[in-house]
Amino acid sequence: MWVAVTESFIAEVVIDHPDLALTPTLRRVSDISVRVESQPITGLESPTVFYVVSSADFEEFEDALDADPTVDEWGGTMEYTDSRLYQVTPSSSAKFTTPTIADLGVHVESIENAGRRWRFRLLAPDRDALGAYWQYCRDEGVQFRLEKLYRSGPQTAIATGRGVESALTDRQLEVARTVARMGYYDSDGASAAEVAAELDISQSTLSTHLRRIIGKLFDALFGPE
After folding, report:
1. Last residue of a domain, one of 94, 127, 145
2. pLDDT on residue 176
3. Tens of pLDDT along 39-77?
4. If we measure between CA atoms, which residue out of 41, 56, 120, 19 comes closest to residue 88?
5. Which residue from 104, 169, 185, 221 lies 20 to 30 Å from 144 (Cα-Cα)?
6. Which residue positions in the chain have pLDDT lower than 50?
7. Is 66 in the same domain as 133?
8. Which candidate, 116, 112, 65, places its Cα nearest to that of 89?
């Protein structure tokens, strides 16, 4: 259910792409907590990012950094009881979405890993800005999942998973769940042909379903009340 929003709001989103900075390391190291302590400074020849790492085998983490194609150089700067601060210079192949977020007038409140992906907590001026960021991610092949959406004042949720589900027909829900289960949107997931075969429909019919599902989801999450 939507509530009218006249002020800014807070969104928690999870994004994933193999070239996002430090993602290869996240995929190699299990049971790790990583928090971005500072954003890359743009305009510099070698931007630097600081990460606080905890709950990790630091030797395994550092070995992963050495093998990470998104990392040019790294060094440890501070060590605490159960965490360490790392200074990382990204390689030219590292992908960032934060410059686009800033261009849209959206403030990044925090970035931390969500397993092998990245979770962003964003302060957005309106739903259009978040919708534009979602579209940018889709255009760039970056997986985007909106987890929570709140008013920036009282922490009142304005969209929920159940509300989104109610916008879909039973058949659309079946298609959406099958697509998610088979990992259609994952780089190593099922192909359109495999998903269509599982649903016993043609690929063109699958494409039509997905277009309508995405349209409804977009309306439910970003449309007018």
Report:
1. 94
2. 86
3. 654 444 557 899 999 977 899 999 999 999 999 999 988
4. 41
5. 169
6. 1-6, 41-44, 155-157, 159-160, 225
7. no
8. 65
The answer to whether residues 152 and 165 belong to one domain is: no
Please give the order of strands across the beta sheet that includes 117-124.
71-79, 83-90, 49-54, 33-38, 107-114, 117-124, 9-16, 143-151
Encode pLDDT of 67-82 as tens digits. Answer: 999 999 999 888 888 8
The two structure tokens encoding residue 214: 């995405």
In whole angstroms, what separates CA 79 from the centre of its chain? 28
Domain residues for the domain of 143 are 1-11+95-110+117-158
Q: How far apart are CA 182 and CA 3, in angstroms?
A: 33
What pTM did the predictor assign? 0.69
Specify whether the CB–CB gap between 11 and 126 falls below 8 A: no
- Expressed in percent and rounded to 5, the helix, strand and coil fractions of the chain are 35, 30, 35
The domain tally of the chain equals: 3
Are both 39 and 90 inside the same structural domain?
yes
Instruction: Check residue 216 and give its pLDDT.
Output: 75
Shared domain check, 178 and 191: yes
